[in-house]
């Protein structure tokens, strides 16, 4: 079965709680060449902030997904192509694996045709997401690879997401996880800031995610990461 993200090399994650850099507009962000925009963040999320970013991106020709950080911020909007809902495999509290999801399903009529989950492995202990979920980030490459394997083989996850949010991770960890995955897509996010860092991670991950850079440096810098990701994929396709 094919999924939209099978064709994605690069995603921009827009945090509705942060502003764009310099004179950048949402049009500029949508036209960087990225394959998809994912709207989400850990801290201070509200439905209103989510909605305003959806409205700002809706008219451009780029896939638009919401990544809700809790059930209260999910926005029902046809402008969205779908929802990517995190589950955190190494969370300290099972609420981040199943609890919030159970509450969400109780309180709403979930559009499962437009919803997929992302099986997160959170690796940077200093990130808000690690603190919030009380994640055990002390994981070796072998551990992360094993998490990836159970995500696919036991829990049937379509996406595994290695999350180093705020810092550039270890490419060997990403490589080890990729080796254990068969059909499941591997997302990598964290600290991608230029052509080389994008190229390095895109050699191992199926899709790389760029977050802070768009808010801190802007679209010029993001465009370089799109190029890095696309070049890595091209080189891989040519060598296959
Ligand atoms: C059941 C529903 C609808 C939602 C629950 C979803 C879950 C389990 C969320 C837990 C993990 C989480 C908060 C993911 C949000 C996306 C994310 C990791 C954003 C990046 O976070 P940071 O970079 O740490 O945060 P800031 O940039 O806001 O500091
Ligand atoms: O903000 P950065 O470090 O680019 O991380 C991207 C994304 O993985 C955050 O959820
Ligand atoms: Mg962040």
TrEMBL record:
Superkingdom in the source lineage: Archaea
One Pfam family recorded for the sequence: PcrB
Transmembrane region(s): none
Metabolic or biological pathway, per its Swiss-Prot or TrEMBL entry: Membrane lipid metabolism; glycerophospholipid metabolism
CC annotations in GO: cytoplasm
Swiss-Prot/TrEMBL catalytic activity: sn-glycerol 1-phosphate + (2E,6E,10E)-geranylgeranyl diphosphate = sn-3-O-(geranylgeranyl)glycerol 1-phosphate + diphosphate
Keyword Transport: no
UniProt protein name: Geranylgeranylglyceryl phosphate synthase
Lineage: Archaea, Methanobacteriati, Methanobacteriota, Stenosarchaea group, Halobacteria
């Amino acid at each position: 079965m094919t999924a939209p993200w099978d064709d994605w090399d690069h995603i921009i994650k827009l945090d509705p709680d942060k502003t764009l850099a310099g004179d950048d507009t949402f049009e500029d962000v949508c036209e960087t060449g990225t394959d998809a925009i994912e709207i989400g963040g850990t801290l201070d999320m509200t439905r209103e902030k989510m909605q305003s970013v959806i409205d700002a991106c809706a008219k451009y020709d780029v896939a638009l997904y919401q990544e809700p950080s809790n059930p209260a911020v999910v926005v029902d909007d046809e402008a969205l192509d779908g929802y990517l809902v995190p589950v955190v495999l190494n969370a300290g509290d099972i609420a981040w694996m199943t609890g919030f999801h159970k509450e969400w399903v109780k309180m709403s009529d979930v559009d499962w045709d437009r919803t997929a989950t992302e099986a997160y492995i959170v690796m940077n202990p200093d990130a808000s997401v690690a603190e919030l979920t009380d994640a055990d980030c002390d994981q070796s490459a072998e551990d992360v690879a094993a998490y990836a394997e159970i995500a696919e083989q036991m829990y049937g996850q379509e996406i595994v997401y290695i999350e180093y949010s705020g810092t550039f991770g270890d490419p060997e960890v990403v490589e080890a996880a990729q080796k254990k995955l068969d059909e499941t897509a591997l997302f990598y996010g964290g600290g991608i800031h230029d052509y080389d860092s994008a190229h390095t991670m895109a050699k191992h991950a199926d899709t790389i995610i760029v977050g802070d850079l768009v808010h801190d440096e802007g679209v010029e810098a993001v465009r370089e990461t799109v190029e890095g990701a696309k070049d890595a994929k091209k080189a891989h396709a040519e060598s296959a």
